[in-house]
Amino acid sequence: MNFIDSVKSCLKNYATFRGRASRSEFWYWMLFIWLASVISFQIDIAIYGDMETAMFSGGLLVSNIVNLIFVVPTIAVCIRRLHDVNRSGWWFLLTFTVIGWILLLYWYIRPGKFNTIERLS
C-alpha cells in the first residue's frame, strides 16, 4: 500500500475499529499525521508571528483543530494494527502508560499474522 492509498483508507475507515491495518497503512498514516502536524504548526506560527506567541497566547488554534480532526482515525488505525498482529484493540490503552509505549511500538513494527488473501475475507 502506498502513501496516498493509506491516507485514503484511513479516512474512509474513519471510525472503523474492526478489521486489520497493514504495517504500510499504519506507518504511512503516522507519516501523514506528522506532516499535517508540522504544516499546521507552521501555519500557527505564520498567524501569530513567532513560536512563543503562537504557543502561549494564541493557543495553537490550527494545530489543535487538525489534531482534533485526526484523533479518531488515528486511534482506529492503531487498533486495527493491533488486530493485524493478533492482539486485542484493548491493548491500545497501554498508550496511557509509560512502559506501554515500548510494547505497542514493538507490536506496530512487527509483521502481520495474516496474508493479503485472508485480509480480504
Architecture overview:
- This protein is mainly alpha-helical.
- It is 69% helix and 0% strand.
- The chain contains six helices and no strands.
- Helix 1 packs across helix 2 (23-48) and helix 2 (23-48) packs antiparallel against helix 4 (61-84).
- The longest helix is centred in the N-terminal third of the chain and has 26 residues, at 23-48.
- The chain is elongated, with a radius of gyration of 16 Å.
- It starts with a helix and ends with a helix.
- The mean pLDDT is 89.
Helix % is: 55-70%
- Shape, please? elongated
Q: Could you give the distance between the termini?
A: 18 Å
In total, the number of strands is 0
- Classify the beta-strand content into a percent band: under 5%
Please sum up the structure shown.
With 121 residues, the chain is mainly alpha-helical. It is built from six helices and no strands. The longest helix is centred in the N-terminal third of the chain and has 26 residues, at 23-48.
